[in-house]
Design goal:
Elements lengths: L1 H22 L3 H9 L10 H26 L3 H25 L1 H4 L3 H23 L6 H7 L1
Helix pairs in contact: 1-3, 1-6, 3-4, 3-6, 4-6
């Protein structure tokens, strides 16, 4: 249980850092969010962005927990796939920030906030890969 609390604390701190970095969007990015992309306006307020990021990371954590509990030892493959997807997402985010002009104008701090999300998902996957296999409910009932 201690490792779960450490991971959740890490995810909370990472979400807070990500929210703070998202809120430090460049002046051009702020204007764009104000006039053209109003649905992303919550990113300008650090605690709103941090809350959204934390909820998404906790959803991913619960999904990985559920898969590990239901599948058992075969869940390692799912966690490796999660790492591959998150690394691909990290690379595609980096490429998008370099190639799309409007995203490039958001600023480096904003970009670092997006990278923090992907690093959080990688951390979740690595944590589950390093943890012992959780016995499923069916196996526990069969041994009683």
């Amino acid at each position: 249980m201690k490792r779960n609390s450490l991971l959740i604390t890490f995810l909370l701190l990472l979400a807070m850092l990500s929210g703070y970095l998202f809120s430090k969007v460049s002046w051009v990015g702020r204007v764009g969010m104000r006039w053209f992309y109003k649905e992303y306006g919550f990113l300008k307020v650090w605690w709103q962005a941090a809350t959204v990021i934390f909820v998404i990371l906790m959803s991913l954590y619960l999904l990985h927990y559920w898969v590990q509990k239901k599948i058992g030892a075969k869940a390692k493959l799912y966690h490796v796939a999660g790492i591959l997807l998150s690394v691909a997402g990290l690379y595609l985010t980096y490429a998008d920030f370099r190639e799309t002009l409007s995203h490039r104008w958001l600023g480096e701090r904003f970009h670092l906030g997006a990278y923090c999300f992907w690093l959080g998902w990688i951390g979740i996957c690595v944590s589950f890969l390093a943890s012992p296999v959780i016995a499923s409910d069916k196996k526990v009932e069969a041994t009683r």
